[in-house]
Amino acid sequence: MPKFLDFLKTLLFCAVLAGSLQAQAQALAQPAIKVVYHLSDGIGQATRAIGNIRNHLAADPTARIVVVTHGAGIDFLLDGAVTTSKQPFSGSIGDLAAKGVEFRVCNNTLVARNIDPSKVVLEASVVPSGVAEVARLQAREGYVYLRP
User: Considering only CA atoms, which of 89, 100, 90 is closest in space to residue 57?
Assistant: First the structure.
């Protein structure tokens, strides 16, 4: 009888282990969550967004994040931009870009504000329209919309 109980314990352990491994495999097989952060309100919003994105990646390092900016939202992506406490954004932008975060700047805003595209930080790309880019990411690529 003791051998039978040992066999049952081993069988139960194997079943629990197999279930755990299957759950882990399913979690790994899930596609990354895609999120678009929409910024249009300037330096304060950008500062909040940087913190939100850091926290987001800490909780879900596999998340695919795109930051789309237009209007005053582009300001933190211009060369030399600083936070309200006079800290440069460049370090945070570089760190997040190294983690896969993409930054996109609205060309319509650049034109309307007479800003040369060469003033945009290297980590960011220019898109024809910020609002059209947000809509495209949501409608065609399945991104979740967040506005910090």
Answer: 100
Q: For residue 120, what are the contacts with CB-CB under 8 A and spacing of at least 6?
A: 74, 77, 78, 79, 105, 110, 126
CATH number assigned to the domain covering 32-146: 3.40.1260.10
How many Cα neighbours within 13 Å face the side chain of 53?
Answer: 31
- pTM, entire model: 0.81
Residue 101 C-alpha from the chain's centroid: 5
Q: What is the DSSP string of 44-92?
A: HHHHHHHHHHHHHHHH-TT-EEEEEE-GGGGGGGBTT-B-TTS-BSHHH
Residue ranges per structural domain of the chain: 1-30, 32-146
Phi (first) and psi of residue 146, to 5 degrees = -130, 140
Average pLDDT value for the chain: 89
pLDDT of 24: 59
- For residues 112 and 5, the model is more confident at 112
